[in-house]
UniProtKB/TrEMBL annotation, chains A, B:
InterPro entries: Arg_biosynth_ArgJ, ArgJ-like_dom_sf, ArgJ_beta_C
Protein name per the record: Arginine biosynthesis bifunctional protein ArgJ
Function (record text): Catalyzes two activities which are involved in the cyclic version of arginine biosynthesis: the synthesis of N-acetylglutamate from glutamate and acetyl-CoA as the acetyl donor, and of ornithine by transacetylation between N(2)-acetylornithine and glutamate.
Family as reported in the entry's similarity comment: Belongs to the ArgJ family.
Compartments where found: Cytoplasm
Pfam family, one: ArgJ
Site (Involved in the stabilization of negative charge on the oxyanion by the formation of the oxyanion hole): T109, G110
Pathway(s) annotated for this protein in UniProt: Amino-acid biosynthesis; L-arginine biosynthesis; L-ornithine and N-acetyl-L-glutamate from L-glutamate and N(2)-acetyl-L-ornithine (cyclic): step 1/1; Amino-acid biosynthesis; L-arginine biosynthesis; N(2)-acetyl-L-ornithine from L-glutamate: step 1/4
This enzyme's EC code(s): 2.3.1.35, 2.3.1.1
Organism: Motilibacter deserti
Catalytic activity reported: N(2)-acetyl-L-ornithine + L-glutamate = N-acetyl-L-glutamate + L-ornithine; L-glutamate + acetyl-CoA = N-acetyl-L-glutamate + CoA + H(+)
Name of the coding gene: argJ
């Protein structure tokens, strides 16, 4: 039930005609309260789309009443006309849902550098407002899909309260968010500060550690809204863990639907001197096109792992590093270890483990292989 | 004539049986003097192959008498046995050419993590020493090829002196060198310090600005040897310009032979506040898999260019940036400019120009598109 799993929320997804496919492309999620606490994290890209710069202002005071989302166009690099489109659509959604534009977050996804058809978008907002329903979560989740092959929804929670969410994204999953829109809702009674703290902690070890293709989007938004409708205030730890679990679930769904990928790769870095070292090493490995091609070819090419490790400034001694593929330690202390023939690639999941022997920290970065289908899909996206 | 274009050098390339293909795989280049000045630059990768750590010591005193090169194995992550192989092959080459091992540079290229067959290598060194000839440059250039489809050779020079060179490399061309071996020879009478200064200046704006696939090799070496056999000492500027021109020529040959590439892309960054900003922005663009796929699909997807620019810390205002493809300014001041339909992709060369409007500096980074053939070639390399 995704964003309508928590009480106090209504949602909808409708066809506005922004997508050439004729599929649903406008979604609306409304928080009916009694509370309207919210927090969000946005792309770290310095080239941000208009909906992101708008929404950063909306969220700043910790209150969000509704979120309007569209696929079929990112509304990014669209100049003053594009900014006007965001403003007008937020105004329209606010009017129809009885709130003010300054409390409406806007999210867009699709091609960059093209104007959205404002008439179609506004008509879509009208239709979405009319379609709002307490079981509208799945329709909303479908309406935000782009190259996703399936909607992503998840639910987690505690005793008498829940957190539910939806996500879209199938590429550009890195770093620090990706062409990724995520809306989380909860009926727990938590204030905006708690939402912010729990959300940042959760994204740091989930979405921020996805690195599908090393590309960072201009539109990424992860929004958490709390209605307080359950009347229950969980402990911070319980709440934070539920938000983390939800983000981890959605992140894995994004990973397993990454454009053209044949394998999901968990790059586990252990023995790092610091968490940052672990992240740096994991990311360097996850971004090696040569390694990602090797995994596509089911080749445990540990030399490409070490070549990537060597590009970082992390603390390690090249003659101490171990590398395992699928549990087989093919490199021990920088030399050939167990025979690479022992490595079996069965199914979609691939495990790469690197032991730096430099400290106590462990970090896992998730990525995908680089495939012929990835190239096909991304060479034909806008044409 | 590559490395034997300059007088004072002999070279050879022979079949030692290191490559399964049966193609030539051991090359030797000997400087017969009278001078033996030399300089080299090596991979910035912290995981360096044994031949690199060996050769760094050899070059330290500014004298090199010979360079032994092999394809068919990188001798990297091969432990103490691998180091012994380097040492023994250098000793053997030194003995056969009447010098000392401490003046013999060793370069290896091929798969990482596999031992070289020492018997075959040493027999190959014997054969290579016997085959040394004043016109042996082309044979040497062929013997260092791996996935290269053709040998790379070039000659430049001035009045009565020349610089010649050979290169191999067809992937991992980044940053700060790549699976790239380059040997340059000159009969100009220049000292080691001049060689070092000219070589570093040349590589900084040529090989260091190639970024084929974002991957950095463990074995890269660019070596310059001067015999002084012409008896002519050119001015520093003349010499440096010849070395630069030679490096630029070889770099373009490497680029145009990059694994599986369909297009060579020149990413020109103008209006940068500093050279480093230009390099950072150019590299970020050159490493965007999404953009590289778009070029493969001949799609002038300028949104992916700006998304890459936004990941850097360079000085720029997103609302001031212009982007041109093939001379068509498709993005002006962060908004759609001329119609993307005007962009024509004819032939192999693609030009992307980004104007940051932040300062006077210009930098060009060269890269390739990301193609189905790249994925095929790199998913099957070691198997």
């Amino acid at each position: 039930m995704s964003v309508t799993a928590a009480s106090g929320f209504r949602a909808s997804g409708v066809v506005a005609g922004l997508k050439a496919s004729g599929n649903a492309d406008v979604a609306l999620v409304v928080n009916d309260g009694p509370s309207h606490a919210a927090a969000a994290v946005f792309t770290a890209n310095r080239c941000k789309a208009h909906p992101v710069t708008w929404s950063q202002q909306v969220v700043a005071d910790g209150r969000v009443d509704a979120v309007l989302l569209n696929s079929g166009g990112a509304n990014c690099y669209t100049g003053s006309q594009g900014f006007l489109t965001v403003h007008r659509s937020a105004e329209h959604a606010a009017q129809l849902t009885g709130t003010s534009a300054g409390d409406v977050v806007v999210c867009s996804t699709g091609l960059i550098g093209e104007q959205l058809d404002t008439d179609r978008l506004l008509a879509g907002v009208t239709a979405a407002a009319q379609a709002l329903a307490a079981d509208g979560g799945p329709a909303a989740a479908r309406a935000i899909m782009t190259t996703d092959t399936r909607p992503k929804e998840a639910v987690a929670g505690g005793d008498g309260w829940v957190v539910g969410g939806m996500a879209k994204g199938a590429g550009m999953l890195a770093p620090a968010l990706a062409t990724m829109l995520v809306v989380l809702t909860t009926d727990a009674d938590v204030d905006a500060e708690t939402c912010d703290r729990a959300l940042r902690a959760a994204t740091r070890t989930t979405f921020d550690r996805l690195d599908s293709d090393g590309c960072m989007s201009t539109n990424d938004t992860v929004l958490l809204m709390a209605s307080g409708a359950s009347g229950i205030s969980p402990s911070y730890d319980d709440f934070a863990e539920a938000v983390r679990a939800l983000c981890a679930d959605l992140a894995q769904q994004l990973l397993s639907d990454a454009e053209g990928a044949k394998h999901d790769i968990a790059v586990e870095v252990v023995g790092a001197a610091s968490e940052q070292d672990g992240v740096d090493v994991g990311r360097a490995i996850a971004r090696s096109n040569l390694l990602k091609c090797a995994i596509y070819g089911e080749d445990p090419n540990w030399g490409r792992v070490l070549a990537a490790v060597g590009t970082t400034q992390a603390q390690f001694d090249p003659q101490q590093v171990d590398v395992s593929f699928q549990g087989v330690k093919v490199c021990v202390a920088g030399e050939p270890g167990e025979p690479r023939d022992l490595v079996r690639f069965d199914g979609r999941d691939v495990s790469i483990r690197v032991d730096l022997h430099a400290g106590p920290e462990s970090v896992t970065i998730w990525t995908n292989d680089l495939t012929v289908d990835y190239v096909h899909e991304n060479s034909a996206y806008s044409t």
